[in-house]
Amino acid sequence: MFHRRDLFWLLLLAITVGLIAAVGFYVAPLAFSAEAAEETPDVVFVPTAHDVVAKMLEVAGVKKDDVVFDLGCGDGRIVATAAKKFGCKGTGFDINPVRIKESLATVEKFNVGHLVSIEKKNIFKVDLSQASVITLYLLPELNGRLIPQLDKMKPGSRIVSHEYRMTDASGSQLTTPDKEIEIISREDNTKHKIYLWTIPLKKVGEKVEKVDPEEKKKG
User: Fold this and answer.
1) How far is Cα of residue 76 from the mean position of the Cα atoms in its chain?
2) Under 8 Å CB-to-CB from 9, ≥6 apart: which residues?
């Protein structure tokens, strides 16, 4: 026979268990959502036409001794094409598991596995200092967010972007490209823009100190 005291403790235990279960129910999805959000791509994958890829690599002046990083590599076609055509090393970065799988298949198809690696990684956490060429097909604001990383690259390194410049969240231009060209792709019969920057980047509004040639001679 239960006494009132026993019933009280049983009720208290049931309430406590219920509260713990409720907290767990809400916390677990929130943690999962936070993790999922961190791994969500910032852009929808749209493949770059193959002839545009070839032009991007040409504009960047890719050579055998270059190291190419493709940020947001999609199906891996850019970095794989660079390795196949020029014999250079490269790495493709993406956070979408589907894109990683496609990229690995492309690397195998191009038979460049000895030159190209594919990594599942947030592009804003990648150390770019070991690359000499960066290829991009991201939105302009995302390109702009990469500037602190790009600034750590060696002088003379090149950045080539399909379609978009580098801007802030308001759309204001942050850098001045060294070159801007247009190409009409035979693959999709569409006009495309390609932008090229060389490190150090030319920042918009940044004052460049001019040195008098005569003063330079005196020094």
Assistant:
1) 13
2) none
Residue (of 201, 214, 163) closest to 185 by Cα position = 163
| Whether domain 50-198 has CATH 3.40.50.970 | no
Q: Is the pLDDT of residue 113 over 60?
A: yes
Q: Note the pTM of the prediction, 2 decimals.
A: 0.76
Number of H helices, E strands in the chain: 7, 7
Q: List the domain boundaries for the chain.
A: 1-38, 50-198
Which of 77, 42, 61 is CA-nearest to residue 159? 61
Please identify which residue in the block is written with the tokens 């195998």: 108
State the number of CA atoms in the 13 A half-sphere of 15 facing the CB. 6
pLDDT reading at 186 higher than 60: yes
Of the candidates 203, 199, 209, 135, which has an alpha carbon nearest to the alpha carbon of residue 166?
203
